[in-house]
Automatic annotation (TrEMBL):
SMART domains: RHOD. InterPro entries: Rhodanese-like_dom, Rhodanese-like_dom_sf, Str14. Pfam families: Rhodanese. The lineage of its organism: Eukaryota, Viridiplantae, Chlorophyta, Pyramimonadophyceae, Pyramimonadales. This is Rhodanese domain-containing protein. Residues 33-167 form the Rhodanese domain.
Length: 181
């Protein structure tokens, strides 16, 4: 599955603006969750194990590169040269979400590390900031989910505001998150 461009005409960003995707601040997410709205964490599985918002459901948008084609091998090398583990779009992402949350009319909040922004703001400059959660929102809306909500600020804001988190290595994640822009 190939994703359309983020900011090109007709791209994901324009779609999210046109469809009026709602971004919730942390307080709104907490309220929605208290009403039974599921929180979908689209970060990598190992990141979810390290730390996640209490009661979040994990369905990763990206997974480790699994094949051994020449292109996949080259991508692994490039990622490794930059000190990163290579990932690719999870081809089963939508199916995995449907399995976890089958009712497409049910509200769903989508979260990643930083949240991103689909509109330009005073802090983001002239361009919006693409994120895993925004890409996931786009894919779910395209799949027919009717009430997709975006977690503004992502897990970083969630943790910064001292909302409940659980995981195996919370302290290491907090230190790592503090170093990210």
């Amino acid at each position: 599955m190939a994703l359309p461009s983020w900011d090109a005409p007709g791209g994901m960003q324009q779609y999210l603006v046109k469809e009026k995707l709602v971004s919730l601040r942390i307080e709104g997410i907490q309220q929605a969750m208290s009403e039974g709205v599921p929180l979908l964490d689209v970060r990598a599985p190992e990141d979810f194990v390290d730390v996640h918002a209490k009661d979040a459901v994990s369905v990763p948008l990206y997974t480790p590169i699994s094949g051994f084609s020449p292109v996949q091998m080259m991508r692994r090398v490039v990622y490794a040269a930059n000190g990163m583990a290579g990932t690719e779009l999870n081809e089963n992402f939508v199916a995995d979400v449907v399995a976890a949350i089958p009712d497409k009319s049910e509200p769903i909040v989508v979260m990643c590390d930083s949240g991103g922004s689909y509109e330009a703001t005073a802090t983001s400059g002239l361009e919006a900031k693409k994120s895993r959660s925004l890409i996931a929102c786009y894919l779910l809306m395209q799949e027919g989910y009717e009430n997709v909500l975006h977690a503004e600020g992502g897990l970083r804001d969630w943790a910064r505001l001292e909302m409940p988190v659980v995981g195996e290595d919370i302290e290491a994640w907090v230190q790592k998150a503090a170093m990210m822009p």
